[in-house]
Amino acid sequence: MRQETPVAVVGGGVVGAAVLYWLARRGVGALLLEAEDGLALQASGTNSGILHTGFDSTPGELETQLLLRSAELRPAVLEELGIPVLRCGAILEPRDAAEVEAVGALAGTAARNGVDISLSEDGALEVPGEAVTDPVAYTHALAAAAVAAGASVLTGCPVTRMESAGDGITVETAGGDVIRCAAAVNAAGLHADGLAALAGDAGIAIYPRKGEFFVFEAPARPPEQILLPVPTKRTKGVLVFPTLDGRVIAGPTAHDQEDKEDWTVRSDAREEVLAKAEALWPPLHGLEPVFGYAGLRPAGRDGRNYAIRPSQACPGLVHVAAIRSTGLSASLGIAEYVCSILEGLGAPLEPDRPLPAGASPAADVPWWQRTARHRLGVAG
Residue 80: which CATH number? Predict the structure, then answer.
């Protein structure tokens, strides 16, 4: 099949869906190409589902700017698209003097970022804007609104060739589709480095950082807030948080690996998570998880995350790569930012306008099972 589109978006995770959605808000009926048979079947469907405010993000960095902008954009989009959300807030409770000092520093970071927090006399930090969503429903809602406004989505279409062709870009898929577009967006997640290489760019390198989670039936009722540990330089640590369906999730781990296809939960993961989770929320003691899942975050090597920039080798292509664990929270800000880059490259974008909700597919299983079972080839 041969077709033309103003913009081709490669990648059907939450970032690709958000870019498709924001292009539709700017009057561009783009085409999204996803290698899997559905949307949000990789990193976007195996994360925590927490919508972060950016209170603890390093001031001034691009990631922080986009997290903060997303927090501004998100309330209206959630309401317009009917995306489910649990506005529960989060709390960090220090356990010793060193952690009191660390939490005080986080409060200072939040103040510099302009995020609303409260710090109690005992050193506990509350962040009322933190929330929990269904990341699969979130992704589908963005894509559905874009499709209702004139965009298109093709799944089961891995891209095998991308190259500059005259005043545009030619994209080919494994199924023989040939797409001619004026511009393209590389939002291929774990495989954004491979797509960049297809286009002639060798400067993007992504490795999978595995985060493992365990799901529990709440013994009475789930915690009322997201329970956050005091983070380290390497990781935010193990969290305990409620889900939209009344369960409790603990995790994640942070295991660096090379295999982008290994979605298994390691035998050591349970020990790494449960003791820390019980310290945050004692009612977990003695409970057996009802489910465990692993997500692979597309992290940039050597800390080179949020590689959002025009291609140096393929005019009209914009890379949106190494969008690590904050991708869900930052997705709307990322999408708006990508549209500004495309506009700077000459794409004819109209003024921004809200979009009504589209028709999203009904969920047959909880989001925390859907993608994990797909990745492991488990039926049901």
Answer: 3.50.50.60
